[in-house]
Amino acid sequence: SLGEWRHIPGWERYYEVSDRGQIRRRESGLIRRLSKSYYGYMVVTLTLPSCKPMQLRVHRAVAMAFLPNPNDLPEVNHLDCDKTNNRVENLAWTTKLENMNHIKITAIEAFARCAAILREHALDYPDNPRVQEALSKCETKIMALSSPIRKSIGNHVDEKLPHWKRRKIVY
Questions:
Q1: At what angle do helices 129-153 and 96-124 cross, to 10 degrees?
Q2: Long-range contacts of range 63-66, CB-CB < 8 Å, 24 or more positions apart?
Q3: pLDDT tens-digit profile of 39-67?
Q4: 23-25 and 15-18 beta bridge pairing
Q5: 143 by DSSP, 3-state: which?
Q6: pLDDT at 148
Q7: DSSP structural state of residue 35
Q8: Which residue in 30, 19, 29 sits closest to 6, CA to CA?
Q9: How far apart are CA 35 and CA 55, in angstroms?
Q10: How buried is residue 49: exposed, middle or buried, by Cβ count under 10 Å (0-12/13-18/19+)?
């Protein structure tokens, strides 16, 4: 099965989008080829009779067709931070600030996992300067990323981090 298909708002007469992030022409049913934009988003070029071709970000088409947006939020967040995963269950309407913070929190968690592994290696190889240097870089990156988040959303980010991550982040 190709999933559920719905009209793309603004393009109802010509194109449809699936809940899996595919675009097709209504008339022929042909699936359009997607490409990756400079910024890493999947895009499709849509054409209308007597109009210039227009690029549309696929995640926005999926969100507009499948996700209610009662608060008229301006941005679509990829919940797993994978800009190519345009399945409806991976998308959510959000504010610009929430979208930016989501990316940073995800990065903090990744650097924290890295730091935890490096801490284990530091115990096994206490005299290895490379391990200590890598651990220091990870912890510096965690602090740099978490600082602007704390300013914008308060210390709620702390509650999302397990205790072993909170301990190492100096506020």
A1: 150
A2: 63/88, 63/91, 63/93, 64/8, 64/9, 64/10, 65/6, 65/7, 65/8, 65/9, 65/17, 66/4, 66/6, 66/17, 66/19
A3: 999 999 998 877 899 999 999 999 999 99
A4: antiparallel
A5: helix
A6: 56
A7: E
A8: 19
A9: 10
A10: exposed
Instruction: Work out the mean pLDDT of the chain and round it to a whole number.
Output: 82
Instruction: Give me the amino acid identity at 101.
Output: N
| Biggest CA-to-CA distance, the chain | 70
Which among 57, 56, 54, 95 is positioned nearest to 75, based on CA atoms?
A: 95
pTM of full prediction above 0.70: no
**What is the DSSP code (8-state) at residue 56?**
E
Residue 148's φ and ψ, nearest 5 degrees, are -65, -30
Strands (E), the chain: 5-7, 15-18, 23-25, 35-36, 42-46, 54-57, 75-78, 91-94
User: What DSSP designation does 88 have?
Assistant: G
Tell me the two tokens of residue 117: 């592994």
Backbone angles phi, psi at 19, to 5 degrees: -70, -5
